[in-house]
Amino acid sequence: MPSDRRPRVFVALLSATVFLLPVTVQRAAAGETAWERVPCVPGDLPTEALFETIQVVDDFSAEKTAWIALRTDQNAIATVERDTEEKHEGRATLRVDYEFVGKPDLEYIQITRPLDLPERGVSIGFWLKHDGRPFPIRMRVADASGETHQIDLFAATKPGWQFVAGDLTGQTHSWGGDRNHRLDYPCKFAGLCIDRTEKGFKSKGRFWIADVASIRARKTAATLQVETTGKRFGNLYAPGETVALRAQGKGEAIRWSVRDFWGAQFESGQGAATGVEFSFKLPRPGYFLCELALMDGTRVAELQEFRCAAIPEDAATARSNFFGVCTHFGQQNYPLDCLELMSRYGIDQFRDEICWRAVEAEKGKHVLPPYADAYTARADRLKMRPLIIYNYNNPHYDKDGFPNSSEAIEGFAKYAVELTRALKGRVNNFEVWNEWVGGCGMKNRPGDHSPAAYGHVLKATYAAVKKEFPDVTVVGIGGEYGPRCAQNVVDMIGTAGAGSMDAFSIHPYRYPRSPEESDLVGEVTSIADRAGAAGATKKVWITEIGYPTHRTSGGSEETAQAWHGVRTLVLLQSTGVVEKVYWYDLKDDGSNRAYNEHNFGLIRHQQFNCAPKPGVVAMSVFIRMTCATTFTGLKKQGDIYAATYRRADGSEVLVVWTTGEARAVKVTGKVNVAVDLMGAPMDTASGLKASVAPIYLTGEKLGLAGD
Q1: How far apart are CA 304 and CA 46, in angstroms?
Q2: Could you read off the pLDDT of 73-100 as tens digits, one per residue?
Q3: What average pLDDT does the structure give for the chain?
Q4: How far is residue 367's CA from residue 562's CA, in Å, rounded to a whole number?
Q5: Which domains does the chain have, with CATH numbers?
Q6: pTM here?
C-alpha cells in the first residue's frame, strides 16, 4: 500500500525473544513444549528472482532497433524509438509512445521483433517502466503449427522500473494453427500486448522497456521448515494470544519480521539457519504477517510467510443476512473444517452445489451422495444457511450435454425436486444452474445454451420445486454475466415467464478495477430495471463477485482485495435491489500464483493450512459492524463516500472511505467508537482520516460535515 494512503493507527511494540536451535527436531519430552510443523505460504519473491537469464537478446545498444509497433484495426496508436535519455542499466532503452482512442471493440498496443524460443521452458523477460496504470500485459508466441498462444505476464502495477516475465509452462489462451492448445516447438516470439483497462478507454502516455533476455524459471529446492506450538486450523487466534514459531533450513541465516496489515513492522530478528525460535503477541484484532527469509549471503534464497489473524470471540456470534461466500464442498475440494473456520469469522451463508449426475447416478434413482450429506449435515449442526445450485449435465440425458429435450428438462426438474426433498430442513435456498450462457462446467458439451433454452429449464424446474416445496426460495437466471447480461436476462425471462423465480442472480465481476470506477451500482441497477420492465422480480442476488490476487495481469494486491471487498458490499447495499452477495470465493483453489482461478480466495489453500488473507478479516469486521442493522443511505462528497446503518437502539454505524488521496474528514454527531478495516480501535484524538480502506464509526446522528 502506498505510504500516502496508509491510515495512521496505533501500533503496540511487541516483545520477542530469539534462540538458536539444533538442526534436528526432537519429540517433546514430558513437560516440554510440543512443536508441530505448520505449512506456510511461499512468499512472493521479486519477479527477477523467479527466473534466470540465458542470454540478453536486446540491450538497445544498436542505434537501429528491430522493434516495430503493429498497426491494425485492433491496435492502439503506437510508435517505438530508441531512447538514450531514459536508461535502466545499459546505454539505451526502447520508448513506446501510445494513444488509446476508445475503439468500440478491441484496442491494444502490440510491439514485436524477431526472437526464437527453441525449446520448452525458454521464455522472454524484460525490464519495464511505466506510470503504474494497471494495464494487462501479455506475451504472444507462435508455435510450429502456426497456433498463436497468449500468456499473462508477471507484472506489478507500481510505477518505476520492474522486471516482467512470462512462464510458458502455465495457462495460455490460443487460436489458429492446429488448435491443440499446446506449444509445439520450436516457437517464435510474436509480440508484447498491452491492453486497455476497460472498453472505451482513452489515454495518451509512454513506457520504456530495457534489457530483453531469454530466460527460464529458476529451479529452487524448498528447505525452510517452520513449526509452532498450539497449532490451529486457519492460523486463527484471539487478540492477546502469543504466537510461537521456530524455523530451520539449508542456508546461512534466517531473517524474520512481523508486520500488520498496514505494513508497520513491529518485530524482527535474525539467527543461524540451523535454527531460530521467537514469539510475538497479537495485541489487537487484525491481520498479521510473519515473514521468514532463508538467506544465501545477501540473496533471499527462500521466503515463507506465516499468516495469521486475531479475531474477537464475539465474531462467531455475528451474522449477516446480506453476505456469504462461495465454496466447493460439492466438488470435494474443501476440508470440512472450513465450515467451523467460516463460522469463527462470522460467515454463516455459503453457496455450493450438488450436481445432477451425482444425485441421479442411476437413471430414475435419486440418492444424496455421502459427501453432500456430510457437508450439509455439518453445516446444519453449525446453524449455517447454504444456497445450493441445481446444476450441470447427466450422462443419461441429451448425450451428457445441456438439457434441451423435453425428457432431459423433465429429468432435471425431477432431480431438483428430489434434491430439495433430501435436504429438507437443512437447505432453504436453491439456484437454477450456474452461468448457463457462458457454459461454465460444460466445456465441449453438446446442446443449446442460449438464453431462450435456459428459460425452458428454469420454467419447468421452478414449477416442479415450488409445487412440492412452496416455502423454499428458488433463484433464477443462474448467475448471468458479461456485456450482454441485461439482454440475456430479458431473453431468459421471455421463455421462462416473469413468475418463474423468487429472485434472480448475476455475476458482475470487474476485477481489477474498483467498484466505483467500473460503475458497479449503475450496472446492477440497470440490469434490475430491465428485468423489472420484463415483468420479473427486481430482487437481485449477486451469487459471484470477487477480486483474485494472482501475480499476472488482472490480479489485485491482497490489500486491494480487502478494501475493494468491503466497498463492493456497501455499494451493492446502496442499490436497494440487491438482497444477498456471495463472495467468490472462500478459499484459493490451488497454488499457481500466475493463474487467476487459483487465487480468488479470502483464505489460502488447505496446502497452506487455510491461512488468512487480509480480505477474510475485512469481511469479518464488516459482518460484525453491520449485523443487526438497517442500511439507510449512501452519500458522496466528491470522492468521499459515507454509508449509514441504523441499529435497533437508534444508534448508527457510518462507513467512510475515499477513492482519492487519503485526507482528513469531518464528521457530525457523536462518535463513540472508531475502528479500522481490520477491526482495530482507532485513535480519534487528532481527527479522522478517510482512505481507500473503509473505516467504521459508531455513535449518534452521524454524517459527513457539509451534508
Answers
A1: 14
A2: 999 999 999 999 999 988 899 999 999 9
A3: 92
A4: 40
A5: 3-35+229-310 (2.60.40.2550), 48-217 (2.60.120.260), 313-627 (3.20.20.80), 631-704 (2.60.40)
A6: 0.87
